[in-house]
Write a structure and sequence with these properties.
Keywords: Membrane, Signal, Transmembrane, Transmembrane helix. The protein has 157 residues and is mainly alpha-helical. It contains five helices and no strands.
C-alpha cells in the first residue's frame, strides 16, 4: 500500500478507535453515550458537528489526490481548503460552543430555576462534542496539509 493512501487510512482508523473507546462510559454500558448526546442536540449543533466531521474527512480524502498533483503543479487547487480548515475548524467550533452557552444562559434566566446536575451534564457533553468535532477537523487538516507539503518537497528534489 502506498504512503499517500496509508496516511489518511491510518488517521481514520485512529479516529474511529478513539470514538469507539469513548463509547464505553463504564463497564456494562450504562451512561451518556456520544450518539445519545448527538441525538439530544439541537439541529444547529447537529449541522455544525456533521459539517466539521465531513470537512475533516474531506481533507483526509483530498490529501492523496493533492499529493499526486504536486508533481505537475506546485500549488494544486484544494490546498486552500485544507489550510483554512486548520484554523477554521476550531473557530467554527468555538462559535458554536459560545452560541450554545448563550442559549443555556437565556434558558436558565427564562425558567428562573437552577438546572439539575443531569441537565448540566448533558449540556457539558454537548459542548465537548462540538469542541471534539472542531479538533477532529483541524487534526485531519493538519496531517493532510503536512502530507501534501511533504509530497511537494519530494517533487522539488
Amino acid at each position: 500500500m502506498r504512503l499517500n493512501i496509508a496516511l489518511p487510512a491510518l488517521g481514520l482508523t485512529a479516529f474511529w478507535t478513539c470514538a469507539a473507546a469513548a463509547q464505553s462510559v463504564e463497564p456494562g454500558g450504562r451512561g451518556l453515550k456520544i450518539a445519545a448526546v448527538f441525538n439530544d442536540a439541537g439541529p444547529e449543533t447537529k449541522l455544525i458537528v456533521l459539517g466539521l466531521v465531513a470537512c475533516g474527512l474531506a481533507a483526509a480524502l483530498l490529501a492523496p489526490r493533492l499529493a499526486r498533483q504536486t508533481r505537475d503543479n506546485p500549488s494544486p487547487r484544494g490546498i486552500g481548503f485544507i489550510s483554512g480548515l486548520r484554523l477554521g475548524g476550531p473557530l467554527i467550533a468555538l462559535v458554536a460552543v459560545l452560541h450554545n452557552l448563550l442559549n443555556w444562559a437565556v434558558a436558565s434566566a427564562w425558567f428562573n430555576r437552577s438546572p439539575s446536575h443531569l441537565q448540566l451534564a448533558q449540556g457539558y457533553a454537548e459542548l465537548a462534542l462540538i469542541a471534539l468535532a472542531g479538533t477532529v477537523a483541524a487534526t485531519f487538516a493538519i496531517f493532510s496539509l503536512e502530507h501534501v507539503r511533504a509530497a511537494e518537497q519530494r517533487a522539488r528534489g
